[in-house]
Design brief:
- The structure is a single chain.
- This protein has 24 helices and 5 strands.
- By secondary structure, it is mainly alpha-helical.
- Strands 1-3-4 form a 3-stranded antiparallel β-sheet, with helices on one face. A two-stranded antiparallel ribbon has the order 2-5.
- Helix 10 crosses helix 13 and helix 22 packs antiparallel against helix 23.
- The protein is globular and about 100 Å long.
């Protein structure tokens, strides 16, 4: 028993709209069976405050490959990685596999998608999108133009872009009688609309309509983030990990996509040019946004959030995610980034001590002085034997340069340190707020100590027994996480040893192997997983 969700005036309707959206995202991207007829009459609020979805006569099967292709597409759109979108179009079935990525890139589809995604993200539905588009046109073409004049200006710019694209593809534009028809013909070769898109669009447009009836600024794109955060944080598959890394602004791991692209290029008779490896650093803003989204998703789907149960569940689930002894995709990424940060911070500190410090500069000048004197005196050069000159003059003089090379910060180090500072700046106010609260609590205790019999115990701080149990079960994971961070630092040291300049090859190999052995000893479970992964390849 219940009433239509769109007709209900209950206070929890906005939350149930979120539950409905999460349910459909779960169907689309997790269970693989999508309810394709979510019109307002099929979405009810039950009398006990739950969501009920009726009429399952029309459903769509969503295969696993398509689910991951959608996750990758969303990640690339969200981070504006437009270079990856052409391959996403092929993976999603929007473009045939025999179309070259270059043609898709040159088609202008990425710019159009970026514009559409930006408008959808700002919310408000078609009405407010139309208002924003008009405002953008007025800013671009002139605020005093009428609607008809704006349309003509936009059409003229579009025609110029089409002609430029045709010329780029080697077409004589002057010989084309109708540029728009030619572009339409070419685009039909590049793009097609798979049948599943219509069902997905119908489902989510209905959900957006219900959301807009409650909030005129509702953004279905923004409302999707909590589920996406939860899915990418918890899915251990390689493709989900790749999508999460893209969402967080990190460089992608090497995978089979380059081999697939090479095969496709060969089938078209084209030479395959491997893409330039993308450099990236963790985006603190995106990490915080996704972490909040994960908590929001968990809170919104737990026991209708009665008596704060949702927030308690969110805290418990996030602690499990970070401290799971078996590891998780998010945990692996954070361990990796922590090791990189530790390495970069140590190099910066060593440079300040060994290179930039005035005493270090003076010492470096002292080491170089004998060589400078010797270079200016031919008599001393002739007197001093070669082996003795190398041992007493040349090697000491080269030491400052060797030290500088060893501790020199690379572009990657600079990005990591900048990201760490950005994260510190973002979290600083939140940490300070907690410090202020603790300080005020301490002052109250000091002012009225006689009235306070004892400090609160764990049960009063975490009254929910299930949450206490989850937190206590996660505590052993702290030590395990510490070991993984330590192993990550040793592996980072091995990476640096392999690239260290001025060190003999045998010494470099020995130093690298020693650090790898220490990493395996500190965290043997990671070593075993790496060995199993290597064996499977």
């Amino acid at each position: 028993d219940g009433v239509r969700l769109a007709d209900s005036d209950a206070d929890d309707v906005p939350r149930l709209c979120g539950v409905a959206l999460n349910a459909y995202l779960t169907m689309l991207l997790d269970t693989g069976v999508l309810h394709c007829d979510p019109h307002p009459g099929n979405l009810l609020r039950t009398n006990d405050g739950r969501l009920c979805i009726l009429d399952w006569g029309m459903t769509l099967s969503v295969p696993s490959d398509l689910q991951y292709a959608l996750l990758e597409f969303i990640a690339h759109i969200n981070t504006q990685d437009f270079e990856a979108l052409p391959q996403d179009f092929i993976n999603l079935g929007f473009s045939p596999p025999n179309v070259s990525l270059e043609r898709l890139q040159n088609s202008g589809i990425t710019e159009g998608l970026a514009f559409a995604f930006r408008q959808l993200s700002e919310g408000g539905g078609p009405k407010k999108i139309q208002e924003r588009v008009k405002a953008e046109f007025q800013e671009r073409y002139g605020a005093d133009l009428s609607d008809e004049e704006l349309q003509k200006a936009a059409r003229a710019e579009m025609m110029d872009q089409m002609e430029a694209q045709l010329e780029k593809e080697g077409v004589d534009v002057k010989g084309v009688t109708n540029v728009m028809e030619e572009m339409s013909r070419r685009n039909r070769e590049l793009f097609a609309l798979p049948p599943y898109v219509l069902y997905v669009a119908r489902a989510f447009s209905t959900l957006e309509g219900i959301g807009l009836s409650i909030d005129e600024d509702y953004s279905i794109v923004q409302e999707c983030y909590p589920y996406l955060a939860r899915r990418l944080f918890t899915d251990r598959s390689p493709r989900a990990k790749k999508a999460l890394r893209a969402m967080l602004g990190l460089a992608e791991d090497a995978d089979d996509s380059t081999a697939l692209a090479a095969i496709q290029a060969g089938a078209r008779g084209e030479e395959y040019v491997p893409p330039t490896k993308k450099e990236g650093a963790l985006s603190p803003g995106k990490l915080i946004e996704m972490s909040e989204g994960f908590a929001s998703y968990t809170a919104a789907t737990a026991d209708v959030d009665r008596d704060g149960a949702g927030q308690a569940a969110a805290a418990a689930e996030f602690s499990k995610l970070l401290l799971d002894p078996k590891g998780s995709t998010l945990q692996e990424i954070l361990v990796e980034e922590t090791a990189r940060l530790g390495d970069a911070a140590a190099r910066r500190a060593l440079r300040q001590i060994l290179v930039d410090n005035p005493a270090a500069r003076a010492f470096a000048s002292t080491l170089k002085t004998p060589k400078d004197i010797l270079e200016r005196s031919e008599q001393l050069k002739a007197i001093l034997p070669g082996p003795l000159k190398e041992a007493l003059v040349d090697r000491p003089a080269a030491l400052p340069e060797l030290i500088m090379e060893l501790v020199e910060l690379e572009a990657e180090d600079e990005r990591i340190l900048a990201s760490a500072q950005e994260l510190s700046d973002a979290l600083g106010p939140r940490i300070q707020e907690n410090v202020d609260i603790r300080g005020a609590f301490s002052n109250q205790l000091a002012d009225g100590a006689s009235a306070v019999p004892s400090l609160p115990d764990v049960r009063s701080l975490i009254p929910d027994s299930e949450t206490r149990k989850a937190v206590s079960e996660s505590l052993p994971g702290v030590a395990n996480l510490g070991r993984r961070v330590g192993a990550g630092l040793f592996r980072r040291a091995a990476y640096r040893a392999e690239r260290a300049p001025g060190i003999p090859d045998n010494a470099r190999e020995a130093l690298s192997n020693a650090n790898k052995a220490l990493a395996d000893a500190v965290c043997p479970d990671v070593a075993e997983r790496n060995a199993a992964a290597a064996a499977s390849e």
